[in-house]
Specification:
Immunoglobulin-like; eleven-stranded antiparallel beta sheet; alpha+beta; 197 residues
Amino acid sequence: MSVRRMLTAMVVSVLVCGVSGLAQAQSASPKSAAKPVAAKPEAAAVGGAEPTLIGQFGTWGAYTATPNGKKVCFALAKPSSSKTNPPNRPRDPAYAFVSTRPAEKVVNEVSIMIGYALKPGSESTIEVGGASYAMYTQGDGLWIKNAAEEERMVDAMRKAGDATVKGVSAKGTETTDVFSLKGLSQALDRLSQDCRR
């Protein structure tokens, strides 16, 4: 639980102060995209970690951080399209990330920050390459329900063009977010080089 909060705080710190940098990096050359993201005020909340953008690959940014002296690497992307039913319901931005935490022997953990409080006890799905994976919900986050399927899901994400995430808010709003997977494979390859023990 604390690891998820820490990762969420790191992602929020990247997003709050780094979304414009992420957008600029997405249109910048790979050389300039490798510049570190500026220090974030929220970094103190995660043990002084300052996420650093190490590369931009298509729609996916590759980041590293060292909260509490333990290296964490993650790939992060915003959805290419989002829909709500009923339409135009307000929500915070959604983000997908794939994280690796060598100290905990966690590799390529997929999670989604959905941008609203999910209906307690609800399940969501992520559809990738024609397959559907059940996701469990907690707060505003989604994680794969069957951890044994995660490696297969990540392999599918490396090959597919996009992933569709469906969820239901605590107020009953249904959402569908589509994430482009362009660049994810390259981002994960870069992270596997940078996130060795």
